[in-house]
């Protein structure tokens, strides 16, 4: 990582600042969306579960993707912490070469992982709430899962683009 100085001679880390800034923004948006969905939409039944495309209801998930490692919270927590550390190290090591899309991708991945990790530690499970009705093979998911999928997709596309 290159240390740069601005015109005033002050040292700053532009890529790392963008990375952690995006990470913070995505986490705040994730918490805000979840709060609105669970406290307004689900509790007040604003979004009827009779919608043919999308249902919103609260489900407690003790597993990871597709409910793997169900009821093995300590393993999932450890894997999540390792993923956060590894992704952050990869970003810091390659921040000089990282495109904006790469920065966004890893920020989304870390945000989604962190949001789910916080819930696992706090509640012992993750709260999922979106269900795509015409696709019953897709499990119920949440905002953090969307961030993880989007981050992975953007990262793969940015790698393939090179």
Describe this structure in words.
The protein starts with a strand and ends with a helix. The protein has about 160 residues and is mainly α. The radius of gyration is 18 Å and the shape is globular. Helix 1 packs across helix 3 and helix 3 packs antiparallel against helix 4. The chain has four helices and four strands. It has a two-stranded antiparallel ribbon with strand order 1-2. The chain has a two-stranded antiparallel sheet with strand order 3-4. Helix content is about 60%, strand content about 10%.
Task: Please name the defining characteristics of this protein.
162 residues, mainly alpha, two-stranded antiparallel ribbon, two-stranded antiparallel sheet, 4 strands, 12% strand
Query: Based on DSSP secondary structure assignment, what is the total number of beta strands?
Result: 4
Nearest-integer average pLDDT: 84
How would a crystallographer describe the biggest sheet?
2 strands, antiparallel
The percentage of residues in β strands lies in: 5-15%
Net shape: globular
Strand order of the largest sheet: 1-2
Brief account:
Helices cover about 60% and strands about 10% of the residues. The protein has about 160 residues and is mainly alpha-helical. The protein has one domain (about 15-160).
Show the helix and strand layout.
Layout: E1 4-5, E2 11-12, H1 14-42, E3 54-61, H2 73-94, H3 100-123, E4 126-132, H4 143-161
Antiparallel strand pairs: 1-2, 3-4
Helix pairs in contact: 1-3, 2-3, 3-4
């Amino acid at each position: 990582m290159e240390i740069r100085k601005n015109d005033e001679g002050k040292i700053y880390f532009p890529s790392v600042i963008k990375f952690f800034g995006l990470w913070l923004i995505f986490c705040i948006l994730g918490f805000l969306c979840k709060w609105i969905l669970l406290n307004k939409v689900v509790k007040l039944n604003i979004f009827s579960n009779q919608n043919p495309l999308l249902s919103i209801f609260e489900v407690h998930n003790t597993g990871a993707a597709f409910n793997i490692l169900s009821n093995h919270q300590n393993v999932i927590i450890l894997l999540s912490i390792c993923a956060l550390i590894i992704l952050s190290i990869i970003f810091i090591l390659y921040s000089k070469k990282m495109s904006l899309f790469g920065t966004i991708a890893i920020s989304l991945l870390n945000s989604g992982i962190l949001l789910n990790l916080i819930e696992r530690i706090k509640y012992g499970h993750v709260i999922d709430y979106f269900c795509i009705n015409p696709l019953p093979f897709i499990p119920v998911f949440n905002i953090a899962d969307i961030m993880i999928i989007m981050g992975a997709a953007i990262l793969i596309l940015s790698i393939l683009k090179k």
